[in-house]
Amino acid sequence: MAPKEDPLPPGWENLDRQMGQLFMMGFDGTTVDSRIRSLIQDYHLGSVLLGAKNLKSAADTARLALELQTIARDAGHPVPLAIALDQENGGVNSLFDQIYIRQFPSAMGIAATGSKQLAREVASATGQELKAVGVNWILGPVLDVLTSVHNQPLGVRTSGDDPQEVSQYGVEFMKGYQEAGLATCGKHFPSYGNLEFFGSEADVPIITESLEQLSLNALVPFRNAIAQGLDAMIVGGVAMSSAGVNVMHACLSEQVVDDLLRRDLKFGGVVVSECLGMEALTHNIGVGGGTVMAVKAGCDVILLCRSFASQQEAITGLKLGVENGIINRGRIEQSLRKVLAMKSRCTSWEQALNPGSVSSLTKMQPSHTALSTRAYTSSITVVRDKNGLLPLFSVLEPDEELLLLTPLVKPLLASAVSRSVAENINSATDSSAWERAASMSGESVFREFGRSLARQRGGRVLHTSYTASGVRPVHENLIDRANAVIVITADATRNLYQHGFTKHVSLICKSYCSPTGERREKPLIVVSVSSPYDFAIDLSIGTYICTYDFTETALQALVKVLYGDLSPSGSLPGSISRSQKLQQSRQHWLVETWNEERDADALDALLAVVREDASLIGQRSELANVTSNGFLLRSDDVDEAHFVVRNSSTHALYGFCSTYSFQSTGTGVIGSLIVDPTRRKLSIGHSLHNRAIRALLQRKEVKRFQLGSRLPNVYLGIPTTNPIERKKLRQWFANLGWNTALSRPVCSMVLRNLSSWVPPEELARSLQMAEVNYDLICGGTHTESVLDHVRTNSRQGIMEVYKLALNNPPHCGIIRAKRPEDGAVLASIVVYDNQSILAEYVSALKDSHAKAGGISSPIISPSVGEYATLMQGLILLGIREVRKQGADTVVLDCVDGDGNVDSLCGMGFSVLHSFEEVTCDAATWNIAQPL
Known about the structure:
By secondary structure, this protein is of the alpha/beta class. The protein has 29 helices and 34 strands. The protein folds into 3 domains: 20-362, Glycoside hydrolase, family 3, N-terminal domain (TIM Barrel), CATH 3.20.20; 380-576, Cobalamin-binding domain (Rossmann fold, 3-Layer(aba) Sandwich), CATH 3.40.50; 581-719, Gcn5-related N-acetyltransferase (GNAT) (Aminopeptidase, 3-Layer(aba) Sandwich), CATH 3.40.630. α17 packs parallel to α20 (552-562) and α24 (761-769) crosses α28 (867-884).
């Protein structure tokens, strides 16, 4: 029998009063309005969410909190309100006051310090300041593990990508808040660290990992925080779709809340729902019904952020659910007990009606200011400084000019929990409110940073911004004029124009010629002021610094690092900072070098077995129609070495691995790794991988490694067409030392029925209006101009694709987009037919099961602003050329998945095979055994 619950304290007999404690609600404005007053007086609201839209200053916050508590007391509330706030530090602070509230680094910035003690001290200081203004419940810590860096809205709000490290820092943050007297609320269960975004912005992001996969990784910090006494937990509104789980909104699911969180993780605290006013939820279910489902699932507190009508609908819905018997009184009382227990730990009427306010904040100022300085100076990370550009006075004379290039970015978000995935769920924002939450807008803080650089060195600093328009003439002129350049990026892994701009500036600086004609590289420093992943593994950026946020305090510390007044001690958090090590297999198979005469037939037999295995489970194999010849480039510009594990008696191959060393880019590539399906999990793959890495490390020209080869085009990376298999493969390669969090999506696409295909009208119109000339060349005198254009693109295999195309007329050609005024090549793409040499290396072409032609390797100059228009124009002309050859199908290979797929689907293409391309610095590999 279940234990009998203790009776409720006196004063809680009324159902309406009980239900009021099960809601947390927000409101608009910086003063108490009639709506929030009514919610407290008439509906017995138990918790209020304050956000940036409500808070002007520390003093005003204290007055607002006191007024809210006074209304509750006068309305007969037996216990004070829980007043909640997001205050994650870094760029996510709902309360900003330059005088009384100190700025501290983001969660990832704190993790970069390497100090768990510092994490607790910062959290305690933050909690003390909030407690002083009447806040008693903090919506934190963030416990998400950032298992994917692409298209994830969390960024530096997490401590990193290592579950144990996120867990350790999360617990320290939690204990620091609790020491200051605040209730805590972990987020965002079951994890926002690896969301998939599909459809429109109103659609809900999806967690595709299985419960087993989540348990091994993403749930680790939540489990440990629960064990250490976490007070509350926010359950997100995201969907879940994997084997055994099909959930539309996690916070409405009994499987997530009651089974996973309550039973499996043994959480006994307060469960808070995501805001039920989010667009997707109101559209799919409705607020009233959603409230009943959330409570039925196990949520104790229902969050409604702003709309008074929705808030009333939620309360009415819950009451109706009780009256109809869907929810019994015992369930309401169970949640009430949890809420009251939490409130007893973080507030009382004496505290609520007597906050410390500004006077106590004044006393905290000296110690908290010193703590803020210590935290920021310990977090700034110099990832590398290969050419010794730091401090700047070592390369810059007092009378020389320094150029600062900064992106135009929005103000730092001061997030409320309802907007934790704001860019993809109900994305409307109140920009003026967000501005109040950050120290300055992005533009203002960078302008002040430029002034600080000038003041510190006593010299001239040139400063201008850049946008998605790319490198313009004004930038080129300033770069030519300056003696050193600093480029700021802010989350370039998601804002891809910043990545392209920085790479273009880097190219200009490396090819700089002095007025005397001397070729001399111009000093370039790249600073990431948000996600450290922007250029963490890109060794072409020789000097790279990370600050983890772009608050004024962070950038002041950066100034000191740049001029040598501060020795940076931060290090990249999580797995990205560790040397990648090869794990030694438990079984060591004899790996032999590929011998074409001996092994070709055996490899064809192995490929047939793999294809048959895929067909048995209904999968389309990437190896369809691939033969052993498809792995052999036979190119003077590419060193290839392939390896096999074989039975020396029967000559059968158990495994095959192809590797290529591309001299043009210094990239060592593992192009395929194939194991007999009947002999997997016997360490054959480990042995082949180990031997491949050793072979690539022996080549002096190899500076980086890559999983996936664009030439030959069999596997572009880790196959991802099958979500379940994708998870297994990503984990397998991660265990070998590859940082799969830094992967980039690529795919092959196909357009069928060319004879009846009609291009979208708007596309043909935009192509006619574009101020660009297009032409088609087949080898000839234009070879060198095309290859000069290709050299600006550093990806492996691209140069070799173009060389093959130029040497194989009339079966291959190059379509060029040129600037009319000077004939400069702005963009190019390869077209070829199925009789070309190139077709031998593109497996997707053979997989199309029709007379097909191909389009390959689009290159758009980084300086071009109209990227999408040029891309679609090249592809449209490529389709026309393929159709002229009599083909009915066109295969487009090597499509970058970051933003291109949707537009191409709009043209009629569909995805044939999808992959994740993974790269890493070769210098980070550490082989335990001698070569």
